[in-house]
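Worked example

This section walks through a single chain of length 98. The input is the sequence exactly as stored; nothing has been trimmed or padded.
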Amino acid sequence: MLHDRVLVRLDGESTERLSGSGIVIPATATVGKRLAWALVVATGPHVRQVQRGDRVLFDPEDRAEVELQGTDYVLLRERDLHGVAEPEASGEGTGLYL
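Given that input, the structure is written out below as C-alpha coordinates.
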Protein backbone atom coordinates (compact mmCIF):
# COMPACT_ATOMS: atom_id res chain seq x y z
CA MET A 1 0.00 0.00 0.00
CA LEU A 2 1.20 3.49 -0.79
CA HIS A 3 0.86 6.84 0.99
CA ASP A 4 -2.46 7.30 2.87
CA ARG A 5 -4.33 4.41 1.27
CA VAL A 6 -6.37 1.87 3.24
CA LEU A 7 -7.43 -1.50 1.83
CA VAL A 8 -10.63 -2.85 3.39
CA ARG A 9 -12.89 -5.89 3.03
CA LEU A 10 -16.62 -5.29 3.38
CA ASP A 11 -18.36 -6.84 6.37
CA GLY A 12 -21.01 -9.44 5.62
CA GLU A 13 -23.61 -7.24 7.31
CA SER A 14 -22.90 -4.48 4.78
CA THR A 15 -24.18 -6.52 1.86
CA GLU A 16 -27.74 -7.31 2.96
CA ARG A 17 -29.89 -5.83 5.70
CA LEU A 18 -33.06 -6.84 7.50
CA SER A 19 -35.95 -4.45 7.97
CA GLY A 20 -37.67 -4.13 11.35
CA SER A 21 -40.26 -6.70 10.23
CA GLY A 22 -37.63 -9.19 9.00
CA ILE A 23 -37.72 -8.48 5.25
CA VAL A 24 -34.33 -8.87 3.54
CA ILE A 25 -33.18 -5.68 1.79
CA PRO A 26 -30.50 -6.43 -0.85
CA ALA A 27 -27.33 -4.33 -1.04
CA THR A 28 -28.38 -3.04 -4.47
CA ALA A 29 -31.51 -1.36 -3.08
CA THR A 30 -31.17 2.39 -2.77
CA VAL A 31 -32.56 3.81 0.44
CA GLY A 32 -30.74 7.14 0.63
CA LYS A 33 -27.19 7.67 1.72
CA ARG A 34 -26.06 4.85 3.99
CA LEU A 35 -22.55 4.30 5.33
CA ALA A 36 -20.97 0.83 5.34
CA TRP A 37 -18.68 -1.09 7.71
CA ALA A 38 -15.48 -2.78 6.57
CA LEU A 39 -12.43 -4.50 8.04
CA VAL A 40 -8.98 -2.97 7.42
CA VAL A 41 -6.64 -5.52 5.83
CA ALA A 42 -3.71 -3.25 4.84
CA THR A 43 -2.56 0.34 5.28
CA GLY A 44 -0.02 2.62 3.65
CA PRO A 45 2.97 4.04 5.54
CA HIS A 46 1.35 7.47 6.06
CA VAL A 47 -1.88 6.19 7.66
CA ARG A 48 -1.99 7.37 11.28
CA GLN A 49 -5.49 6.75 12.66
CA VAL A 50 -6.26 3.13 11.77
CA GLN A 51 -4.39 -0.12 11.74
CA ARG A 52 -4.86 -3.62 10.41
CA GLY A 53 -7.85 -5.38 11.97
CA ASP A 54 -9.88 -2.22 12.76
CA ARG A 55 -13.55 -1.93 11.72
CA VAL A 56 -14.10 1.33 9.86
CA LEU A 57 -17.14 3.26 8.65
CA PHE A 58 -17.08 4.78 5.15
CA ASP A 59 -19.31 6.03 2.34
CA PRO A 60 -19.69 3.15 -0.17
CA GLU A 61 -20.11 5.59 -3.06
CA ASP A 62 -16.57 7.03 -2.57
CA ARG A 63 -14.65 3.86 -3.29
CA ALA A 64 -12.47 2.01 -5.76
CA GLU A 65 -13.03 -1.76 -5.86
CA VAL A 66 -10.28 -4.28 -6.57
CA GLU A 67 -10.21 -8.09 -6.71
CA LEU A 68 -7.17 -9.90 -5.33
CA GLN A 69 -6.93 -13.70 -5.45
CA GLY A 70 -10.70 -14.03 -5.85
CA THR A 71 -11.60 -11.73 -2.93
CA ASP A 72 -13.18 -8.30 -3.40
CA TYR A 73 -11.62 -5.35 -1.57
CA VAL A 74 -12.21 -1.60 -1.46
CA LEU A 75 -9.37 0.92 -1.71
CA LEU A 76 -9.89 4.17 0.23
CA ARG A 77 -7.94 7.21 1.37
CA GLU A 78 -7.64 7.61 5.14
CA ARG A 79 -9.52 10.92 4.95
CA ASP A 80 -12.54 9.09 3.42
CA LEU A 81 -13.11 7.14 6.66
CA HIS A 82 -15.89 8.45 8.89
CA GLY A 83 -15.30 6.40 12.04
CA VAL A 84 -13.49 3.50 13.68
CA ALA A 85 -15.21 0.97 15.95
CA GLU A 86 -13.76 0.48 19.41
CA PRO A 87 -12.72 -3.06 20.31
CA GLU A 88 -15.59 -4.97 21.92
CA ALA A 89 -13.53 -5.68 25.04
CA SER A 90 -13.51 -2.05 26.21
CA GLY A 91 -17.20 -2.05 27.18
CA GLU A 92 -17.40 1.73 27.71
CA GLY A 93 -18.64 4.63 25.62
CA THR A 94 -20.65 4.50 22.42
CA GLY A 95 -18.53 1.92 20.62
CA LEU A 96 -17.16 4.47 18.16
CA TYR A 97 -14.47 7.06 18.12
CA LEU A 98 -14.75 9.65 15.36
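What to look for: Residues 5-97 form a domain with the 10 Kd Chaperonin, Protein Cpn10; Chain O fold (CATH 2.30.33.40).
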